Amino acid sequence: MSFSLPTFSSPIICETNNNHYNSHALDAAYIKRAADLADKSAGFTSPHPNYGCVLASSAAGNVRVVGEGFLYAQGTKPAELLAVETAGEFSKHATAYLNMEPGDCPGDHIAVSALLKGGVERVVIGIRHPLSHLRGNAIRALRSEGVQVHVLGEDLQSKFFQEAIKLCQLVNAHLIYRVASRVPFSVLKYAMTLDGKIAASSGHAAWISSKQSRQLVFELRGRSDAVIVGGNTVRKDNPKLTARHGGGHLPTRIVMSQTLNLPEVANLWDVSEVSTIVATQRGARKSFQRYLASKGVEVVEFDILNPRDVMEYFYDRGYLSILWECGGTLAASAISSGVIHKVYAFVAPKVIGGKNAPSPVGELGMVEMSQALELVDVCYEQIGPDMLISGFIQPIPDLAPIIPSVNETSVIDPSVTPYEASIIFFYKTWDPYGAFSNFSPHPIQMPDENGDYLTWSSVEHYYQASKFLGVEDPSAKECFENIKSAKSPEEAARMGRKLQRQCPHLVRPDWDSVKVDVMYKALKCKFSIYPHLNSMLLSTAGSVLVEASPHDLFWGGGREGEGLNYLGRLLMQLRSEFLGESSTENSCLRM
Description:
18% strand; disordered C terminus; globular; 9-stranded mixed beta sheet
């Protein structure tokens, strides 16, 4: 069993006719296939929305798939472009099925352009984009070019579409919940005995569930941005919280501890493979905070440590999904704070008893059964000897009330942000100014040490690989090549940071003194060769540019403005240079 959505074992073929019944059934089937493809991107890199595209073409009286694709990661080729490339000439006059409206970086139209250049005549979309500044943009762009666009539930009404729409929502539930609740999509996972115990009275808990269930938990971790536990779990279980699924995304480990009463020796303090963040109350055990910092563990202090504030903090850091693997006390606090959206409960066919044996959820203050929280969209699956029961505590948010009407012509104002107009924040590529990010999908060409120009998939690829440029060591050259060929900017960043931390002897000795110049040259190339990026940068004249990274205090602005914001500074420097060049050119023209 896996968390993937249902797949089709063979290409979907249907005889062409004018019967709406068959037509709607076919549209629904292909949208489900697109959702299944989109789900394949989960667990490889994070965070990013999940996109899938199916191209279907009619020939000889039937309709068949001619191309498919899914977005591997933010910054890689869009699903639509991959599908068109796969289909080749068969994309002409085809119908494209998308689980979600394309959401390119603002100012970029790669996905839409791919469909137009491929000659696609019709596009069927499962759901509109959840982000307000992207919602409706691709639909309007396609319709303005004469492409027929149908959105399920809006332009197409049928009983067949209910399941298809639900699958499209599920595959991007993390993004939908994040938009609606302004906290990351949070899943509470636990394993318990048939009599509702998560450990014996002694506290011993290994192992309640079966090996098959534990393997499934590894996969669930690999699909999350972070895994969170409480201090009691660290003290009693000493977990590693690794994904162990053979590659792909490794979630950040988060520990919530009010007093920092934690052991000095713990698996979570080993950050050689994946980072750990400890969230604690302000002022707690300063000496232990320094000890954790010396181990490479990040410590974040809160005035009052509670799940709501912690989740709002990680929302600001760009996290989409959090897996809670905590004990009953913290689980109850998280549920009471309204930050838990879904539950995965593994029930083992065991009975252990014990009046004082802990249960998965502590005190919620409920005194009558009528107050119990009822899950919706409940699923039951047998995993080995265990039963997995999953469902939503909070139903999938309905974004329909704020979806633009089909006939609207006005463009949604992308400048509406929670920040002051004089400061422009950017961080993730889906932000209104997300194209300023090093992770945006804009290839650049930069010279190597021999003066030969190489093509880089993104600024982040070039920056991370440059750490190992010119080092006379075969291992350094291997690092350089591996980062250059990384499938996404996130992978390049993860590889570069990990290698720098684990193999400092392979990093060029002058890196700290040249890294700003390396970044500057890459940014100048990027904003010089893409006119729309240059125009976007110049349009910000008079505003302060800040990379809204709350944890990168060198390139970003930090959580409370304590960061150096070197990325924002370099962009403002480039903006000034470009404005100066423009002014000089205009002066020459007037002469």
